[in-house]
Automatic annotation (TrEMBL):
Its EC number is 6.1.1.22. CDD domains: AsxRS_core, EcAsnRS_like_N. The keyword Ligase applies. It is found in: Cytoplasm. The keyword Manganese does not apply. Keywords: Aminoacyl-tRNA synthetase, ATP-binding, Coiled coil, Cytoplasm, Ligase, Nucleotide-binding, Protein biosynthesis. Residues 134-469 form the Aminoacyl-transfer RNA synthetases class-II family profile domain. It comes from Spirosoma aureum. InterPro entries: Aa-tRNA-synt_II, aa-tRNA-synth_II, aa-tRNA-synth_II/BPL/LPL, Asn-tRNA-ligase, Asp/Asn-tRNA-synth_IIb, NA-bd_OB-fold, NA-bd_OB_tRNA. It catalyses: tRNA(Asn) + L-asparagine + ATP = L-asparaginyl-tRNA(Asn) + AMP + diphosphate + H(+). The lineage of its organism: Bacteria, Pseudomonadati, Bacteroidota, Cytophagia, Cytophagales. This is Asparagine--tRNA ligase.
């Protein structure tokens, strides 16, 4: 008697094999002659059908086999008469592990809205849509590690509790060991936060980049892949308070090398998902097509999910400078007709409406924008000779906007310190970071990919809260 996940049973076992299948009941259907149970164990989007003859199972057992119950069925694999399935299990015995009271179990065999499923995030992995997303998420994470391992990068674990604000944007969550009921007070009677973390002010990391640079200056090529935190109160479909970021950092890379790596990397991991998640992607592709049909004709997207992924991996990304992009935007129809919510001119930070115009309307391809004005970018980016721009790059994707942000780093000690003074960062606070420029400085570059934005793109979902198992965003952290 073999016990295998359904995915392997369907793929590898011939008719006639005796099997035990353990999983959760998706549906039960009774006809005059038989009972049909669709079982799923999370290993695949495909259910396996288990069939008993009418009267074979006791009334008591049948009553417990409802949607959501966990059961094991044992019997031979036989050819199936059902459409879309080659084999099914002819039930010999059934064991009920855990029933699920149909009056109380929130998931029913029908399509629930994503909003409703967000309210029961603890159970939504049991739905087809979310189990497909989670398997794709897993495959993408594996592909990320594989890509870097295959290309000579070392995986560096950077701290989650840190005293630095890597982006200098001040969007940090504080970490504290204080007893909230008896906090130490300053002479003025205010809470003395300088005592926070064993006598130090600390926060949850917004990015592992600065520590990543230390790694690159020692190991050559490194990458991080860990949770990062932003206390921006953005209630958007693209922002989370806790998200996973992948940050490669490479010694001796300049901006051009950085762009080449970003493009090859993102295409390779998408290709991996297409090769290894075909069933799940086909399911999500269908789901999306159904959803598109409910939209007005002019709002329906031209490409299906699979076509969109194929398109991205087989076309070169457009590369242009921020200055060139502004030129295009200023002369665009929405700008002339005043349709952008935010006006656009040289020096402003691009809003997602501008990014999406460039990608979805103008070029209809992923775009890498480079050489942004120094004032709107972080202090660590290498300054261009013109004194106005820095060697930044953002990768913009259709439906997403910014998916990657990166740059060549300022490797000149004096220029970096001067820039820190300009933006109000105390060089002493980052003395360890400056040591990379003090001792054996080298040209280097890197970028950060928001993992959930990648999963959002690959799954075709519309809200970032639906591509992470336990979303942390304003009003969501119940468990
Ligand atoms: O552009 P960001 O802020 O860049 C950095 O943090 C750099 N230190 C990266 C580097 O050069 N090593 O963030 C990088 C990416 C963004 O492009 C976006 O994909 C994602 O992280 N991101 C978020 N994803 C989800 N929720 C948020 N609140 C995010 N903020 C940034
Ligand atoms: Mg950015």
């Amino acid at each position: 008697m073999s016990y295998l996940p359904i995915q392997q049973v369907l793929k590898t076992l011939p008719v006639g094999t005796d099997v035990t299948i353990k999983g959760w009941v998706r549906t039960k259907r009774e006809s005059k002659n038989a009972v049909f149970i669709a079982l799923n164990d999370g290993s695949t989007i495909n259910n396996i059908q288990a069939v008993a003859e009418a009267g074979q199972l006791s009334e008591d057992t049948l009553k417990l086999i409802t949607t959501g119950a966990c059961i094991a069925v044992t019997g031979p694999l036989v050819e199936s008469q059902g459409a879309g399935q080659a084999v099914e299990v002819k039930i010999v015995t059934v064991q009920v592990y855990g029933p699920a009271d149909p009056d109380k179990y929130p998931l029913q065999p029908k399509r629930h809205s994503l909003e409703f499923l967000r309210e029961i995030a603890h159970l939504r992995p049991r739905t087809n849509t979310f189990s497909a997303i989670l398997r794709i998420r897993h495959a993408l994470a594996f592909a990320v590690h594989k890509y870097f391992n295959d290309n000579g990068f070392y995986y560096l674990n950077t701290p989650i509790i840190t005293a630095s604000d890597a982006e200098g944007a001040g969007e940090m969550f504080r970490v504290t060991t204080l007893d909230a009921t008896k906090p130490p007070l300053t002479e003025e009677g205010k809470v003395d936060y300088s005592q926070d973390f064993f006598g130090r002010e600390t926060n949850l990391t917004v990015s592992g980049q600065l520590e990543g640079e230390l790694g690159a200056m020692a190991l050559g090529k490194i990458y991080t892949f860990g949770p990062t935190f932003r206390a921006e109160n953005s209630n958007t479909t693209r922002h989370l308070a806790e998200f996973w970021m992948i940050e490669p950092e490479m010694a001796f890379y300049e901006l051009e090398d950085n762009m080449n790596l970003a493009e090859d990397f993102v295409k390779t991991v998408i290709r991996y998902a297409l090769q290894h998640c075909a069933d799940d992607l086909a399911f999500l592709d269908n789901r999306l097509k159904e959803e598109e049909k409910t939209k007005k004709k002019e709002e329906q997207s031209e490409l299906g999910l699979l076509e969109k992924l194929q398109f991205v991996i087989s076309n070169e990304f457009v590369r242009l400078t921020y200055t060139e992009a502004i030129e295009i935007l200023v002369n665009s129809k929405p700008a002339k007709k005043g349709q952008f919510q935010y006006e656009v001119s040289w020096g402003v930070d691009l809003q997602s409406e501008h990014e999406r115009y460039l990608v979805e309307k103008h070029f209809k391809k992923p775009v890498i924008l480079t050489n942004y004005p120094r004032e709107i970018k972080a202090f660590y980016m290498k300054q261009d000779e013109d004194g106005k721009t820095v060697r930044a790059m953002d990768v913009l994707f259709p439906g997403i906007g910014e998916i990657i942000g990166g740059s060549q780093r300022e490797d000149d000690f004096d220029k970096l310190v001067a820039r820190m003074h300009e933006v109000g960062i105390e060089p002493e606070a980052l003395w360890w970071y400056l040591d990379t420029r003090r001792f054996g400085s080298a040209p280097h570059a890197g970028f950060g990919l928001g993992f959930e934005r990648l999963v959002l793109f690959v799954t075709g979902m519309g809200n970032i809260r639906d591509v992470i198992p336990f979303p942390r965003a304003p009003k969501t952290a119940e468990f």
